[in-house]
Design a protein that fits this description.
14 helices, elongated, two-stranded antiparallel sheet, 7-stranded mixed β-sheet, alpha/beta, about 45% helix
Length: about 325
């Protein structure tokens, strides 16, 4: 990009319209808007000369965040063509309780070539608007199975922190929203303002787009085959289920034979063996961090009975489950 182009781009005001859904996640909102403010603060005088944002509602009633803080909208939904991005921020309220005016508004924005961003559970509203049919998207991991059941045509990515597909950007929200907005600003303004925000906030932008958004699964980031990542994520989401290799292969979009070969090549284990390890690691965490009975933990982690669980646990850890429970109680 030439210096003239950068200068012209930097003089353009970035306009963002926010839709805060009931009981929205405050961290998703502040992570996005505060980084936007910091980066476009001309002269560091709390004057956002290069950015404008508007908080919109289907009416002018205050909107309560999940933490209880209340935000008043600036106006009722404005023509989406007034913005460079429209950002919907989800919360705890189930999608069926969201105002019916939001899905058609978001669909209209995409039809007008205005990029739409869905953070957290706002992905359900995007899907209701028909915006995720055959599109790649990222789902906040606790919502994965529910979303998949409701919208099977969406192409869910499990190894991405955020993803863009034909004008629709999805992100699990929370602290990742700050990473997303920095990427958008670098695209809009160029690298100079990106460096500015990093200096002001003493940040290293080291969380790339292709980082898994599932806690505890960063160990699989080095697996360079997305089919294996998808299979492992599917296992994590179904630890209590009686999964077969056929089930997992179907989810990963490959044959059972391919699945077996890939697991041996990349994880040095069979799918069934790896699934059992995931269950045992989950059981170990529950033993060390909860007061639940060993029988309850065995059932939650998909073992048919306590004796079978104890046998597998001792094979894997070298001691009985009761040992870790006693160790925890002694601390």
């Amino acid at each position: 990009m030439s210096p003239d182009t950068k200068l012209t781009r930097a003089s353009t005001i970035l306009k963002v319209g926010f839709i805060l859904l009931p009981e929205f996640d405050l961290l998703s909102f502040t992570g996005f808007v505060e980084n936007l403010r910091q980066a476009t603060d001309l002269g560091d005088l709390s004057q956002t000369a290069w950015a404008r944002w508007t908080i919109m509602g289907h009416d002018l009633m205050p909107i309560k965040a999940s933490c209880g803080l209340v935000v008043e909208p600036d106006e009722i939904l404005r023509d989406p063509e007034a913005f460079d991005y429209v950002v919907a921020i989800g919360g705890k309220i189930a999608s069926e309780k969201i105002s019916e005016v939001f899905p058609p508004y978001l669909a209209k924005a995409v039809s007008l070539k205005v990029p739409v961003i869905g953070l957290g559970s706002a992905i359900f509203v995007l899907a209701r608007a028909g915006l995720l049919n055959r599109r790649r998207c990222v789902v906040f991991w606790p919502h994965y199975q529910k979303f998949k059941n409701l919208y099977p045509d969406a192409r869910i990515q499990v190894d991405k922190a955020f993803v863009e597909d034909r004008g629709v950007i999805t992100c699990p929200g929370g602290s990742v929203s700050a990473d997303l907005v920095m990427g958008l600003m670098e695209r809009f303004y160029g690298p100079e303002l990106m460096a500015k925000i990093l200096r002001r906030r003493s940040l290293d932008w080291n969380r790339p787009e292709d980082r898994t958004n599932v806690p505890g699964l960063d160990q699989y980031h080095d697996i360079n085959d997305p089919r294996v990542r998808r299979a492992v994520f599917f296992m994590e989401q179904n630890l209590t289920a009686n999964l077969t290799s056929e089930d997992t292969a179907r989810e990963a979009g490959i044959s059972t034979r391919q699945l077996e070969r890939l697991f041996q090549d990349l994880l040095k284990d069979s799918p069934a063996g790896h699934f059992r390890k995931l269950r045992l690691r989950r059981a170990n965490w529950l033993l060390l961090h909860t007061r639940r009975t060993i029988t309850d933990i065995a059932q939650e982690c998909g073992f048919s009975d306590s004796s079978h669980f104890a046998k597998r646990y001792k094979e894997f850890y070298g001691h009985a489950p009761s040992y870790d429970r006693k160790s925890d109680l002694q601390q």
